What we know:
Elements: E1 45-52, H1 55-63, E2 68-76, H2 85-89, E3 96-104, H3 110-119, E4 128-129, E5 132-133, E6 139-143, H4 146-165, E7 174-177, E8 182-183, H5 191-194
Parallel strand pairs: 6-7
Antiparallel strand pairs: 1-3, 1-6, 2-3, 2-8, 4-5
Helix pairs in contact: 3-4
Amino acid sequence: MLDTxxxxxxxxxxxxxxxxxxxMQVGAAHPVLGQSLQPPFPPGVEVAxxxxxxxxxxxxxxxxxxGVHTTAAGYSGGITPNPTYEEVCTGMTGHAEVVLVTxxxxxxxxxxxxxxxxxxxxxxxGMRQGNDxxxxxxxxxxxxxxxxxxxxxxSRASYQEQLDGAGLGRITTxxxxxxxFYYAEPYHQxxxxxxxxxxxxxxxxxxxxxxxxxxxx
Length: 217
């Protein structure tokens, strides 16, 4: 039986759950955006990965952004290959709940996605988001290119200045090069489209972020 204790420290690789070789099978197309949930994506479509606590509300927030091609709920940032939701909940995979966001830069910049990210949750809470406690709910940006990494780090510094001015705490968001993204179970995909009255724990700080106003590089 899996231990579902809400852990607030990441496990060492030697203690992480082993996972499996088989990838999660998900639906073919996004029910809102109509695009494929899985690669290969069309030319000109870029990939971003964000963790903002529970992925249900985070995914809906991004699919509402004009220019986003598709979104998917999943797990990233950890150790265990192809984890299940139950395994992620133990805290022994190292993964965060994340959203895969594919987008066309001609229609929406990565900086604009960063603005949505910072404003849509509280990035100062460590291993939690609101009432959701555990390593899977940490704030994270997993970057798929050196350009994304530079922009994400710059936006973190900029938003920290704005939080400081509002008398709020230090950002705990981890900004890293992306590792593997693992799709979550089908029932998690576009959950709030299927369950409009379902749980959404997103709550921002109320501090606006100007990073989306920076011209694309």
